[in-house]
């Protein structure tokens, strides 16, 4: 398998964690987002969205980080990243979507660029926007993780899964943009539990082959 | 089952379509977003996110439209809304996420409110923002639906599924905000095929009990 991705893309980071948790080897194919390599003709020929990550498995290319992780979980079931029961699966998916739909889309590079270039928003207002959606979104995740009995050492029980694959990259982003994290004891406890594991260490941006680019 | 939702919420609309396609009866519980009923104490006690839709099935509440639809598909498998094969499932999920993560989050009510109230964006600039993300995002969906051989009468083959549940509400939104749709022949062909079906007709905003609110 090849993974087209970028070290600092948090959607890419999610997939790298899933691959590492499953112990699956892959070719790391860097796509430099800040240099707009995702818009170049050769990459656009692979990716209709001109987005990373993109997983190539044999003749097939799969886009969208959550779809990739579900695919990996179906084709390489052990260790499972989703619970066996429908209610548990619904909970994990909804936690993942609380991050993937409510937080991350508002804060990716092209949105921040639009705020600055098209709307003429100041650097301070852009950073306030970023923190607004991250902090409000993570408060929701904290409320759920604290109140829902299925939370364990990780987001769902005591083993890392899909929701943890989403949570950790979002915290990396929050830290980069100096978001408030002190009101999130359960989120940060789970973040620390994840980062104690070799799979999360190996997948983090600073460990990537393109980390210096 | 009870569905807490709002007639004009496109995430709610997705779930209504799925329930209708499966022929599942439910109690329609309106939550008026423009009046901020989602923030009221009684609703906040149910929903950590203060968002619609929320499906209540017995003692369990499930949030996030995609997680709800996957749950319905697992607990009421016929008719299936996801293909049987892993690659097909990945394709349908990634199409759904192209809408749920790349288009819709940028254009929901709270984001538009932030643009106007916190960033002081004009009505024209707000509408341009809306159209920018919808039109660019739907171009991606069009490119995929036109080029990928699995597209049929519907987004994946000849029966409606998860991706169609996402596509139709997004087109309703695009029409409300006068987005350009003339460059989207495959998208609009599939939209028309969906709207010819009773399930999509029954689920549309104008057919909802709270349509006049």
TrEMBL record, chains A, B:
Would you kindly state one Gene Ontology biological process term found in this protein's UniProt entry? glutathione metabolic process
Where the record annotates domain GST C-terminal, the positions are 85-213
User: Keyword Ligase, does the record have it?
Assistant: no
In terms of PROSITE patterns, this protein maps to:
GST_CTER, GST_NTER
- What InterPro entries has UniProt attached to this entry? Glutathione-S-Trfase_C-like, Glutathione-S-Trfase_C_sf, Glutathione_S-Trfase, Glutathione_S-Trfase_N, GST_Zeta, GST_Zeta_C, GST_Zeta_N, Thioredoxin-like_sf
Gene3D superfamilies linked? 1.20.1050.10, Glutaredoxin
The UniProt record lists the GST N-terminal domain at 1-80
User: What domain of life?
Assistant: Bacteria
Q: Which keywords appear in this protein's UniProt record, sorted alphabetically? A: Isomerase
Q: Name one GO molecular function term.
A: glutathione transferase activity
A GO cellular component entry from the record: cytoplasm
Q: Name one Pfam family in it.
A: GST_N_3
PANTHER family of this UniProt entry?
GLUTATHIONE S-TRANSFERASE YFCF, MALEYLACETOACETATE ISOMERASE
- Family (UniProt): Belongs to the GST superfamily. Zeta family.
Its recorded name reads Maleylacetoacetate isomerase
The beginning of the lineage is: Bacteria, Pseudomonadati, Pseudomonadota, Betaproteobacteria, Burkholderiales
């Amino acid at each position: 398998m090849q993974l087209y991705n970028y070290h600092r893309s948090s959607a890419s980071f999610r997939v790298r964690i899933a691959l590492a948790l499953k112990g699956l080897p892959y070719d790391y194919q860097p796509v430099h987002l800040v240099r707009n390599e995702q818009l170049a003709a050769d990459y656009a020929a692979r990716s209709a969205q001109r987005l990373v990550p993109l997983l190539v498995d044999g003749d097939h290319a799969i886009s969208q980080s959550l779809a990739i992780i579900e695919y990996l979980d179906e084709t390489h079931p052990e260790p499972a990243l989703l619970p066996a029961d429908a209610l548990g699966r619904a909970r994990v998916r909804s936690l993942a979507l609380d991050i993937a739909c409510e937080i991350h889309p508002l804060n990716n590079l092209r949105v921040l660029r639009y705020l600055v270039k098209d709307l003429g928003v100041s650097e301070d207002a852009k950073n306030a926007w970023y923190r607004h959606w991250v902090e409000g979104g993570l408060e929701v995740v904290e409320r759920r993780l604290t109140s829902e009995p299925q939370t364990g050492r990780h987001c769902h029980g005591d083993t890392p899964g899909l929701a943890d694959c989403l949570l950790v990259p979002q915290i990396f982003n929050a830290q980069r943009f100096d978001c408030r994290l002190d009101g999130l004891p359960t989120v940060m406890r789970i973040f620390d539990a994840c980062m104690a594991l070799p799979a999360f260490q190996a997948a983090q941006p600073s460990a990537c082959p393109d980390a210096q680019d």
